[in-house]
Write a structure and sequence with these properties.
CATH class of the largest domain: Alpha Beta
Number of strands: 13
Distance between the termini: 32 Å
Protein name: Small ribosomal subunit biogenesis GTPase RsgA
Largest sheet: 6 strands, mixed
Shape: globular
Number of domains: 3
Family: Belongs to the TRAFAC class YlqF/YawG GTPase family. RsgA subfamily.
Keywords: Cytoplasm, GTP-binding, Hydrolase, Metal-binding, Nucleotide-binding, Ribosome biogenesis, RNA-binding, rRNA-binding, Zinc
Subcellular location: Cytoplasm
Subunit structure: Monomer. Associates with 30S ribosomal subunit, binds 16S rRNA.
Bound molecules: guanosine-5'-triphosphate, magnesium ion, zinc ion
Structural class: alpha/beta
CATH topology of the largest domain: Rossmann fold
Amino acid sequence: MQLNQGESSLVFEGVLFKAYGGFYYVKKGEEIWECSLRGKFRLGKGTPALVGDRVRVTPVRGNTGRIDEVLPRKTELFRPPVANIDQAVIVFAAKNPEPNLALLDRFLVLAESADVAPVVCLNKADLLTGHREHEWLKLYRRIGYPIVITSTKQDQGLEELRELLMGKTSVFAGPSGVGKSSLLNAVQPGLELKTGEISNKLKRGKHTTRHVELLPLLRGGFVVDSPGFSSLDLPQMERVELGYHFPEFEVFREECKFNGCLHHHEPQCAVKLAVEQGLIQQDRYQHYLTFLQEVIEQERRY
Ligand SMILES: Nc1nc2c(ncn2[C@@H]2O[C@H](COP(=O)(O)OP(=O)(O)OP(=O)(O)O)[C@@H](O)[C@H]2O)c(=O)[nH]1
Ligand SMILES: [Mg+2]
Ligand SMILES: [Zn+2]
């Protein structure tokens, strides 16, 4: 693209913090610039700009500009679409809506494969009956995932969450209605994110958050609120890679007879044996098999 005379000197670097209604909002210090995307990105030839991207902007007039370049990313997630994220807080509710563990496992694979550190957050702990920790939560804790149990109604786990967020860029992801926006409002009063009721009939969220937005935290770091999702495609990967994103397979994997064992039909598979012996949880293994089929089908398409 030809720059007008003098334009090059005005080019600046900023952070894309919100994409909404076809516009891209870039922060340069405290200034907010409303930007369009250079044609090449819109045509899908280059990498599309994601919230969290460091971008190079050419001013057009006033506080409007054009994003001409997306700088190299540290990490990228496409669901929700965010770049340069350190940590994904995967939020599920104890109830309303009921937790969907297949979806949780999907997101864990997605985060691990993108090198984004996952944190599992169980919100609406006030709806747990008898103060009993959900069985499934114990399993995830045993696997080694960081777990935080929260309630925005009873001020539970919020300080722990604040500490986990400090100094990092984190995305809040999970189904609609689990309380992602409510949690962020509770972590930092003043964010004033819109929250929505749960539908009485379906006990589901109503997709209140419609866009992805990067928000600065007073104690340092950034958080991204994102719209809820109810399904998730796995990222493209080789079939052998999938098992690496199930941390509890690791100690057994080395004992499998075959190198590159997929822990499916192979004989003398230590992972399968561990499942039979109850050392690896059955549901997790079933999710692994479901994902494996998807990854293999995906491989065929590319
Ligand atoms: N009982 C209980 N309800 C909560 C808690 N946190 C949030 N809620 C309620 O859950 C509903 C949904 O909250 P939101 O924060 O809008 O949920 P969300 O995950 O942002 O949903 P989307 O933006 O649609 O993805 C609201 O009615 C909240 O008041 C909690 O800790 N306990
Ligand atoms: Mg929300
Ligand atoms: Zn095996």
